[in-house]
UniProtKB/TrEMBL annotation:
UniProt key word Cell membrane: yes
Protein name: Multisubunit sodium/proton antiporter, MrpB subunit
Places the protein is found: Cell membrane
Record's keyword annotation contains Oxidoreductase: no
InterPro entries per record: CPA3_antiporter_subunitB, MnhB, MrpA_C/MbhD, MrpA_C/MbhE
Keywords carried by this UniProt record: Cell membrane, Membrane, Transmembrane, Transmembrane helix
Amino acid sequence: MELLLDISLLAMLLTTAVAIAWTRDLFAAAMLAGIYGLLSASFFMTMGAVDVAFTEAAVGAGIAPLLILLTLALCGRRQRSDKTRAVLALSLVAAVGALLLAATFDMPAFGAADAPAHEHVAPRYIGESMAEIGIPNIVTSVLASYRALDTLGEVVVIFTAGLGVLALLLGGSDSRSPVQNSTPRAAEQSHDLVLRVVAKILIAPIMLFALYVQFHGEYGPGGGFQAGVIFAVGFILYGLVFGLDAVHRVAGHGLVQLLAAVGVMIYGSVGLLGLATGRNFLDYSALAGTPVSGQHVGIIAIELGVGITVAAVMILIFYAFSAQLRRHGRLPEPEVETVEGRAG
């Protein structure tokens, strides 16, 4: 039964990938990309990689298609026909695919007991994680404690990527972005009663679930990366349905920029606290009365930093795309009420 499920998922993944490459309707490709992410998450679930599946569902099937759709609002829905570029792209994909397939021949079989990871690091993590870290989710122990420096690098990469997107999309504008100093008209809001009611019903549970994922990562699948994306989805949904003016009143552009940096600062500060207490960088053992309690405090703090940075960067990217849409006339410019207008 498990083999049949794996074959079915792989067949659907392959069919979806071919359909994405074949279609010239970019909107359809964006929707298929979301389906591909959901199928990938299902496949990871069958492999027992629940945390990876959660991340793929939140990013690949959640916020990524939304950002792709915002991109399509700028560049159009139809793909231009360019056979030369298509042949070059197909050749590149075929070459990389062949290299990846060749690399799989040197990899150990999935779940093999003699795999290098199972003979070296895995026994340490599985056998001693509970005594040293004190949390049942070994994935969180590895990412947030044993390999906390790697995770800090990932957070910095996300922060840098957000700055890169802002530089690309807003590089030619005034230093005071239109997202900062303008508010859209009510025309940007959705007037569909069903959408507004459903959004009001869903946004609060989305935020509550994000908090659950944020602070339950020690005991089950989740953590700062997934929670940050879910938080961002809640804010973006609010902005799409009720207008950017409404979401700016909750989280303005300047505040979100600040929070993106604050999350990285929180993570780094926890590492510096370890140095101040005579331990290694990002060693949380001395942050509380006992080493295990210190691990709990440190992991909660750095996961909070991760969640803040991820959520802020996702929201910043949404704001940047919104500014571009307004600049290109896809969104209405804000109405400026003058003295003469009020007198009239």
